[in-house]
Amino acid sequence: MTLVSERALGGCGSGRGVLRSLLPGACSLSTSSCEDLKQYDLACGKQAKLFVPRSHKGGNGGHGVARLLLDRMQARNALGKDMLADLDKCVAKATELGLAHKIRCLVLHSTSETVFCAGADLKERQRMSEKEVLAFVRRLRKSFQALHEVPVPTVAAVGGVALGGGLELALACDLRVGSDTCVVGLPETRLAIIPGAGGTQYLPRIVGLAKAKDLIFTGRQLKAYEAYEFGVLDRYTFQRTAVAEALALAREIVQGGPVALNMAKEAVTKGMGHSDLTKALAVEDKCYARVIPTKDRVEALEAFANKRKPVFKGA
Question: 59 partner at 20 to 30 Å CA-CA among 29, 118, 120, 256?
Fold first, then answer.
């Protein structure tokens, strides 16, 4: 990954630079191989589908990368009741596999590079009573929180449009990767509502208070390089698809020990919940204590001594 100057982008106004892939070998697989699902089994779901590594049943997690696929393109992956039910099942299964160390990373993406998720299903919303709307939004918020709390690192591959609830879904993940087709925004105030699936809380924690207020108050949309500048995207690629870039990132992540990855996520996430540094460091201490007795830690030391790659088993 390298930083590209503003001049190289034709003056797009990117003072911070845009992240892109220059080397074809940056992903351990070819782009086409990265995007197919031949190495996976369908675990659950229809409109939202969880695919797990085919060898995960063998106990070593295979390559460790699970994929949560949004597959309701006839409605631009709009978040309706049925899709949300599938999402809940998939997140619950991913949580189960993550706690058992059978997966080490979860990549969330769409079947299309043109639309990640267009947000709430407004046609369905129009038929709801005020009471039903509030209940559904609360359920949506709870579902996204469950995704946020999946014990393994999560990466959203944002190719195409991610608006409203679609962006909130991506914000609930640990990291976000976008392609040059990416367009993100929280347009709710222009619909006389506010982001209600966690956007008012996730966004300021990711980009800072002032930038979050800017996006939420104006309801404006950001193109990919703007989203990267803002900090909404953590990586931005224009040489390959968002899912290929996200999978390449996931392959880097899963080189770590399964227990260590879980504890690293818990330490960072729970530690940031404390404004008091002493309490935050106590969270780190608790998480570190849980990796000390693992066989994987001993394996890492032996592998280093013998100049070989460690084989982690999540124990």
Answer: 29
> Would residue 192 show up in a list of annotated catalytic residues for this protein?
no
pLDDT band at 39 (very low <50, low <70, confident <90, very high): confident
271 in the same domain as 236: no
CA distance 315 to 310: 13
Tell me: do 148 and 16 sit in the same domain.
yes
Q: Is 299 one of the annotated active-site residues of the chain?
A: no
- From the list 26, 48, 78, 120, the catalytic residue is 120
- How would you classify residue 163: left for phi > 0, otherwise alpha for psi between -120 and 50, otherwise beta? beta
For range 296-303, the mean pLDDT: 95
- Rounded to 5 degrees, φ, ψ at 80 are -100, 180
220, 142: one domain: yes
To the nearest whole percent, how much of the chain has pLDDT over 90? Answer: 81
Residues 6+ apart with CB under 8 A from 30: 24
Does this model's pTM top 0.85? yes
Catalytic residue among 62, 165, 196, 198: 165
Where does the pLDDT of residue 25 fall: very low under 50, low under 70, confident under 90, or very high at 90 and above?
A: very low
In this structure, are 107 and 142 located in the same domain?
yes
Give which of 261, 300, 265, 298 is closest to 283, Cα–Cα. Answer: 265
Of 61, 80, 159, 188, which residue is the catalytic one? 188
Q: Which range, of 14-23, 100-109, 168-177, 224-233, averages the lowest pLDDT? A: 14-23
Among 168, 226, 229, 245, which one carries the catalytic annotation?
Answer: 168
Answer yes or no: 303 catalytic.
no
Strand order in the sheet with 161-163: 115-117, 161-163, 183-185, 221-223
Q: What mean pLDDT do residues 196-219 have?
A: 97
pLDDT over threshold 90, residue 174? yes
Neighbours of 32 (CB within 10 A): 8
168 in active site: yes
Buried (b) or exposed (e) across 164-187, using 16+ Cβ within 10 A? Answer: bbbbbbbbbbbbbbbbbbbbbbbb
For residues 61 and 144, state if they share a domain. Answer: yes
